[in-house]
């Protein structure tokens, strides 16, 4: 029997991100603000082909776009 997150079509990393966000939102105001700052992502990536760097994209925005695209398929 697969795990619930896998049966829902989530990756393990996405499952952890959702769980962490739920925990952060349940904290009291002062602790929640500090925890939300730690949860922010500022990662970027670029695809390389033939020794040339492609367009640099923000990981969070690219992940959201990919999730929306896979949901509409």
Automatic annotation (TrEMBL):
A Pfam family annotated for this chain is ATP-synt_Eps
Question: What GO terms fall under cellular component here?
Answer: mitochondrial inner membrane; proton-transporting ATP synthase complex
Any one Gene Ontology MF annotation carried by this entry is: proton-transporting ATP synthase activity, rotational mechanism
Please name the InterPro entries in this protein's record: ATP_synth_F1_esu_mt, ATP_synth_F1_esu_sf_mt
Q: Which GO terms describe its biological process?
A: proton motive force-driven mitochondrial ATP synthesis
Q: Which domain of life is it from?
A: Eukaryota
| CDD domains for the chain | F1-ATPase_epsilon
PANTHER family tied to this protein: ATP SYNTHASE EPSILON CHAIN, MITOCHONDRIAL, ATP SYNTHASE SUBUNIT EPSILON, MITOCHONDRIAL
Q: What's the family?
A: Belongs to the eukaryotic ATPase epsilon family.
- Under which name does UniProt file this protein? Mitochondrial ATP synthase epsilon chain domain-containing protein
Give the organism, scientific name: Epichloe festucae (strain Fl1)
């Amino acid at each position: 029997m697969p795990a619930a997150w896998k049966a829902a079509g989530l990756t393990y990393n996405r499952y952890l991100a959702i769980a962490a966000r739920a925990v952060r939102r349940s904290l009291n105001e002062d602790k929640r603000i500090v925890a939300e700052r730690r949860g922010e992502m500022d990662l970027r990536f670029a695809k390389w082909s033939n020794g040339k760097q492609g367009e640099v994209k923000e990981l969070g925005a690219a992940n959201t776009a990919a999730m929306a695209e896979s949901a509409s398929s």
